[in-house]
Amino acid sequence: MKQRLGRLVSAAGNCYALAVILLLVLRITPLASQWWMRMASAFQPFWFLPLLVLAPVVLLLSRSRPAKVLICVPCLLFVALYGDRFLPSAAAAPNSERRTAFTVMTYNVTRGEPGTEVILSIIEGEGADIVALQEVSRKVAEAVSGLSDRYPYQAWHPTDTGYAGCAVLSRFPISEDEAFPLVDGMHLSQRLVLDVGDERIHFFNVHLQPPQMLGERLAGTQLFVPTSYDTTIQDRELALLLEEVDRVEGPVVVVGDFNMTEGSPGHSELTRRLVDAYQEAGWGFGHTFPDKEARSIPTPFPLLRIDYVFHSGDMFTQRAQVGDHGGPDHRYLTAELSF
After folding, report:
1. What are 108's strand-pairing partners?
2. pTM over 0.85
3. Which of 13, 34, 45, 314 is deepest in the core (most CB within 10 A)?
4. H/E stretch holding 154
């Protein structure tokens, strides 16, 4: 019985380790563009979740040395991919080299569903120098615009439902502001120019469309089987956003709800041009979505990182932190940047 259990444990560990290795290899092949691979890549951190059970079980119960060695491979891969997220950041520039420092906050207010009092308390409590909001309704605009003493420069583009609306609040002068959908009929994005000290910063507040996942439920069960994972609109939006970024000269900050994880191809496209502030100076996975529940299923903590602050290479991230609440969909993200 004990030998049979050991063989079963070894087989399970071997299958899992080989599956993880195969997925990572597929990510660098042409198959990475297939919908099922794009979907799997979006949830890459969860590939390593079975290690919490399988690694100790295989190491303790298996008598197979190759199985014990093989289960260590995904452990090492996890450390290589995410280990630096749990170490002190070394990204900050020395004090003597900093010219200007400012804090940026991005927050999808979910059409005001957390309640205007909650939204106001979060913004006031964080006290960021620049606040970018997504899904801004007219009700939210009316309430938050009252923070004019703290944020004398404001650029509002609310909508009736709030789903496509956006806004930026700033302690620094806003010399230019333009709101536009990257793709007709989709969320509004903003392009602004901010005068931060002696620097003129091109600031983008964006909200990309989420992927469209289609599927079917197995007959007589609640099991959902995906049949497609469509990012066509998001891909078009991202391509147009990158064209806008490439068009401007000087320091650039791009923030917002990107509806993509760092395992998505789009994140790789962004980080070829810009620095992911949370990757540079955050601690942990930095998940921001969902705050309380997903499809009416309560979640004890956020499961995905889809809200970001990106900046050009002429800036450093001193710190980046996810808020401890937000709701009901998104937690906010703050980052302190300096030149």
Report:
1. 134
2. yes
3. 13
4. strand 153-157
